[in-house]
């Protein structure tokens, strides 16, 4: 039998060394539980990076994949295939967007949105092409999305960056207003910054950005790659904010429920892409969209986003109450089941390592901040167990 050490040696020898992996070799999972090759169980509060919103091996998704795999996997978009139409319908009928294009990842979804915005600039704004994005954002790792992502760590080794992106402070409408000029075609932001440290928008911020975009005839793009598909407690994150309706929205992560699938969606008025403007060999592939269609249908029919809202409030309250006990916790913030716990000490890596030992997978999104993003159907009992583990680790830190 291959041992854990053998797997680690294989990885070291053959894989590009671009990530610091955590020790376990994970082989199977069910719901919030995942198991390693030695049979040890973990509570998975990373959910494959906010991807497995219905948990591991969800029956609806597994069956859809099995069923589709026996029918047709791939035909290219030269022909009609049915699962992509079913998913497109679910997205449009449950959102304020009108049209969908499927691709394979979050970065690619944002690239598509950026292409749409530049075409909008070309057609309507005398060729304007700048897209305003925010500092501490995360939009992906392609050449253009590195320029969009306002974090030096993702940019500095790859300069010169692709032109056409301007990074300003998040949560400050005045910065967007002063960055705007005749060459601006869009603003792209996350409704809540995930990777950047679970940064919640100030009251009214998203609506102010939207109103400003409207007043200048530039596109208001929401990157919902992490916040979409129920994570914030509504099917799409923007639906938690009164009066907010993006012109363009991007999705990925949980869209395929584990199958690699992304999408960008737009309102009818700005659907400026025409035949030949964009494409993707695998985009809208029958297998990935079958998984996505089954997951989205299950999510809507069983109101999983509402569950995430309730469980998220429960978890946030419980974590907040730890602040009475541990003075180094400075803030617990987030929405739905995207929650961050911030400290005034760089304890994250120690906490993550000890949690792993204790059977809990969590993510250190910042040296002083832990991020929790369990499956949306996590049970309250599992939340309690996770918090007990965290509490006993924090006790040892004092
Ligand atoms: C993860 C993420 C991306 C990038 O998605 P990939 O599938 O890794 O390319 C883009 N935007 C946001 C908000 C994300 O969280």
Could you explain the architecture of this structure?
The chain is an alpha/beta fold and 398 residues long. The chain has a domain at 97-277: Type I PLP-dependent aspartate aminotransferase-like (Major domain) (Aspartate Aminotransferase, domain 2). It contains 13 helices and 15 strands. It has helices at residues 4-14, 47-50, 59-69, 83-93, 106-124, 143-148, 152-155, 173-179, 205-216, 286-301, 304-321, 348-358, 380-397; strands at 26-30, 33-36, 41-44, 99-103, 130-134, 165-168, 184-189, 219-223, 248-251, 262-266, 329-335, 338-343, 360-361, 363-366, 369-372. The chain has a seven-stranded mixed β-sheet with strand order 4-10-9-8-7-5-6, sandwiched between helices. Strands 1-2-3-13 form a four-stranded mixed β-sheet. The chain has a four-stranded antiparallel β-sheet with strand order 11-12-15-14, with helices on one face. A hairpin with a 2-residue loop joins strand 1 (26-30) and strand 2 (33-36). Helix 4 (83-93) packs parallel to helix 10, helix 11 (304-321) packs parallel to helix 13 (380-397) and helix 12 packs across helix 13. The chain is globular and about 60 Å long. The model has no long low-confidence stretch (mean pLDDT 97). The chain binds pyridoxal-5'-phosphate. Pyridoxal-5'-phosphate (PLP) binds at residues 105-107, 110, 138-140, 190, 194-195, 223, 225-226, 252-253. Pyridoxal-5'-phosphate binds at residues 105-107, 110, 138-140, 190, 194-195, 223, 225-226, 252-253.
């Amino acid at each position: 039998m291959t041992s854990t050490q053998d797997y680690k040696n294989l990885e070291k020898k053959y894989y590009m060394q671009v990530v610091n992996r955590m020790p376990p070799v994970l082989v199977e999972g069910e719901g919030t539980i995942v198991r390693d090759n030695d049979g040890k169980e973990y509570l998975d509060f990373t959910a494959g990076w906010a991807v497995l919103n219905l948990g591991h091996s969800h029956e609806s998704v597994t069956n859809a994949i099995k069923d589709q795999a026996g029918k047709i996997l791939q035909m290219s978009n030269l022909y009609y295939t049915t699962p992509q139409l079913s998913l497109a319908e679910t997205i449009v009928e449950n959102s304020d967007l009108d049209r969908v294009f499927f691709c394979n990842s979050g970065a690619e979804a944002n690239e598509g949105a950026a292409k749409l915005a530049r075409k909008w600039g070309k057609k309507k704004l005398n060729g304007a092409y700048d897209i305003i994005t925010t500092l501490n954002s995360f939009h992906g790792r392609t050449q253009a999305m590195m320029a969009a992502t306002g974090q030096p760590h993702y940019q500095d080794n790859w300069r010169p960056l692709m032109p056409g992106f301007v990074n300003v402070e998040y949560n400050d409408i005045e910065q967007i207003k002063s960055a705007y000029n005749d060459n601006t075609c869009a603003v792209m932001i996350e409704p809540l910054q995930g990777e950047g440290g679970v940064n919640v928008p100030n009251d009214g911020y998203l609506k102010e950005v939207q109103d400003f975009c409207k007043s200048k005839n530039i596109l208001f793009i929401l990157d919902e790659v992490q916040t979409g598909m129920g994570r914030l407690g509504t099917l799409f994150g923007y639906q938690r904010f009164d009066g907010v309706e993006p012109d363009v929205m991007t999705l990925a992560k949980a869209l395929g429920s584990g199958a690699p699938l992304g999408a960008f969606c737009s309102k009818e008025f700005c659907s400026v892409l025409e035949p030949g403007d964009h494409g993707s060999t695998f985009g809208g592939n029958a297998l990935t969209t079958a998984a996505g269609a089954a997951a989205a249908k299950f999510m809507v029919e069983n109101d999983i986003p509402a569950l995430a809202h309730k469980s998220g409030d429960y978890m946030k309250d419980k974590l907040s109450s730890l602040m009475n006990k541990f003075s180094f916790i400075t803030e617990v913030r987030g929405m739905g089941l995207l929650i961050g716990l911030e400290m005034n000490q760089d304890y994250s890596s120690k906490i993550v390592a000890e949690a792993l030992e204790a059977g809990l997978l969590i993510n250190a999104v910042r040296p002083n901040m832990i991020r929790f993003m369990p499956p949306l159907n996590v049970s309250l009992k599992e939340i309690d167990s996770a918090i007990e583990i965290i509490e006993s680790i924090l006790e040892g830190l004092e």
